[in-house]
Predict the 3D structure of the following.
Amino acid sequence: MFYQPKNGHGLPHNPFNAVITPRPIAWISTRGPDGRDNLAPYSFFNGVAYDPPQVMFASTSGKSDRNLGKDSLDNIDKTGVFCIHIVAEDMMDAMNATSGAYARDVDEFTHAGLDRVACELIECARLPAAPAALECKLTQITRLPGEENLVCFGEVVGVHLRDDCLVDGIFDVTRFRPLARLGYRDYTVVKDVFSLTRPGE
């Protein structure tokens, strides 16, 4: 099968997200200028540089009462900071509970029954139960073709690693089994790990 996206795919559901898989999930906490905390998952997410460490996530929809994208991006644009959490398998239901299109005054931490603590370097809440959290400072927000397609880049200025996930100095993902996004409504969990050596190493 071949199709041009501009002409449609002719399938019951768009296969695009099912092709680019698995995708890590950024569970992003932000705080608005009014002091309200927000927490939401994004699956267009990845690391993009080592030195300094940098990450990106994309927002592909907006809300009519926000200046930029949804709550997360609007808060980041106004405050310049955000915290990304890695989602463990046992946090799946809580993560899903925070994915709704809630009103601005809804606190997703409270809604999902999640504990929070203060970040170390930025004015933002953090999930202490997450296996890893990245405190980030905004570097740029870039608009892509399309009505609501925006990419947010940030520099990682602080890294939290849960102690039980460190084994002999290695951050062991099998200790918490990260959740990843597939296509449609599908997810997967990282259970198996193997190593490969590059040619010449």
Observations:
- The chain has four helices and 14 strands.
- The radius of gyration is 18 Å.
